[in-house]
Amino acid sequence: MAFRYLEHTADIGIAARGESKEQVIEEICLAFTNLIYDSEKVKSQEFRELIIDSRTNAGKIVDLLSKILYLIDGEDFLIKEVKVKNFKPLVVIVGGELMNPLQHKMKSMVKAVTHYKAYFRKKGSTYLARVYLDI
User: Residue 47 is part of which domain span?
Assistant: First the structure.
């Protein structure tokens, strides 16, 4: 996998990398969802389009993950796959299904996605992104 978890007091961070802007966004989203629930048991039965129009690249990551957190907490929608359709504005298609407590096991609770030390940049031929979560 092209991501790792970063330890922090009362927070946890996710750092992701990819060969393209799209790939690093997809990786950080999947790392985020996998932190909250066991994504292996989720099926892509429904697809939703998320549009993010943030001014900065780091803001795009924070806002996208915040929308995904709302889908999980507010609509009980669990995500299995993420596909970036466009970068400016950021348009992402997520596939998943409604949570079934008998089938899906939650692993941890995320309160918020923060701008603290968030970044999205290119280093050489690799794209890097990092975000911290309030848990």
Answer: 3-134
